[in-house]
Amino acid sequence: EAGVAQSPRYKIIEKRQSVAFWCNPISGHATLYWYQQILGQGPKLLIQFQNNGVVDDSQLPKDRFSAERLKGVDSTLKIQPAKLEDSAVYLCASSLVGSGTQYFGPGTRLTVL
Amino acid sequence: RKEVEQDPGPFNVPEGATVAFNCTYSNSASQSFFWYRQDCRKEPKLLMSVYSSGNEDGRFTAQLNRASQYISLLIRDSKLSDSATYLCVVIVTGGGNKLTFGTGTQLKVEL
What we know:
The complex is a heterodimer. Chain A is mostly beta strands. Chain A has strands at residues 5-7, 10-13, 19-24, 31-37, 44-50, 53-56, 65-68, 75-79, 88-95, 103-104, 108-112.
């Protein structure tokens, strides 16, 4: 069974530039999560989707971050404009509805210079 | 106070030792609990769920104390391969699961 796919794996940009990350969850997983993990910290939930609807985006900095899951499968997370403090690993995870077991992708390591 | 707190460590233990981690949570409405393991520069992976009655999986034992609002993970007979960061996860259900990770506890098992 294919796992959660993410791309790109690494991205280096300058501050004030824009960047987008892509995630393809495990087939059949209706719930999709985006996390930000700063070095030395646990993952912080940015947004949770169930199918194409947003369940929780309370910790998403909406002035610069946006996410969508238009067809209820793939998702993109965008940062515009990026700040130095956005340097982190962005993890995507998916799960079956109602399950606490999440499967994570390999993450995208973002460096903002 | 953070919603989910863990001692960041690192815990440096010799091979074969028994080590225990605690994780405290602040929301009494929390209903589901998990331990994840994260290797250096890798993604988190589920280690085990935590059930009310406590549960064991080989050398790993997880316990829940609702009254004191903490969960624990005990690792017996530590192996070098157990070296990783252990993350606790707390879920508040209802209206969509609200899921919070702790900051993680780093374990280093040494020869």
